[in-house]
């Protein structure tokens, strides 16, 4: 029995390390022989601070023991680092892998990123430049202030980011983008977004607007498929412009496009955002992705409950099937291998 548990733990650790390497890329260093992993966590808003998480994985993790964590950050006090390590331990549940959740928790702690690093010459230069621009906008005169730091220049950038996101939300509303209710399965969250489109350029515009919203942009995957009816001369014949993007969730985009084809949904782009929760779902993730999209399409009246017909009202019945899209898929900031 113990041998079986050991083998299961070893397989779970290897899968978790593979997932971390796929998600965080060069920010992760692993040693399977030493059961060790290091993750460099950069400032979420592009600042110069970073936090390094180093973890040793016990042989009975994740079935029993919690990983042993150590945190490093030159800008943080020993007390803050010790507090964070204790908090990480509370996030562990025997039987569940936890490293992805640890990294996401660390990224979300404002206490780590509000503390400025020692000002470098580049930071001082950037701070002074923003002060000059601010005075010029106000029409102020006077000598340049000394001692500007990185911390003093963060608030204007935060305000600008908020303005851009508010504009993106308004743009999504103008594009008639509808977002469904989030669906959670084993700590992974799925949310669908649907918009009417008539061209590949409109697909790209919808994707740009969606990815301007920080929550959507930070999703582990944004799986996309679109299907557009192109009428032939005189309204006869015609074909379909269609394609998909897995965004690192291998094979998910093709399955999402198949859903649109099977239900004859036309002139729409569908995006399903997935926030990975740290537990591998296996093939059931494809069911969760397609079901999340189908529920929203049904609520919008684009797919019947039985899964037949559908289509956007007033846009005609079935047409001749086209091949895989005549244009490349709208590029999403692709990231990760499927989990």
Automatic annotation (TrEMBL):
InterPro entries: Impact (IPR023582), Impact_N (IPR001498), Impact_N_sf (IPR036956), Ribosomal_Su5_D2-typ_SF (IPR020568), RWD_dom (IPR006575), UBQ-conjugating_enzyme/RWD (IPR016135), UPF0029_Impact_CS (IPR020569)
Compositional bias of kind Basic and acidic residues: 130-141
Domain RWD: 15-113
Matching SUPFAM superfamilies: Ribosomal protein S5 domain 2-like, UBC-like
Chief location bin: cytoplasm
Annotated compartments: Cytoplasm
Biased composition (Gly residues): 308-325
Gene3D superfamilies membership: Impact, N-terminal domain (3.30.230.30), Ubiquitin Conjugating Enzyme (3.10.110.10)
Keywords: Cytoplasm, Repressor, Stress response, Translation regulation
Stretches of the chain forming a coiled coil according to its record: none
Name listed for the protein in its UniProt record: RWD domain-containing protein
Phylogenetic lineage: Eukaryota, Viridiplantae, Chlorophyta, core chlorophytes, Chlorophyceae
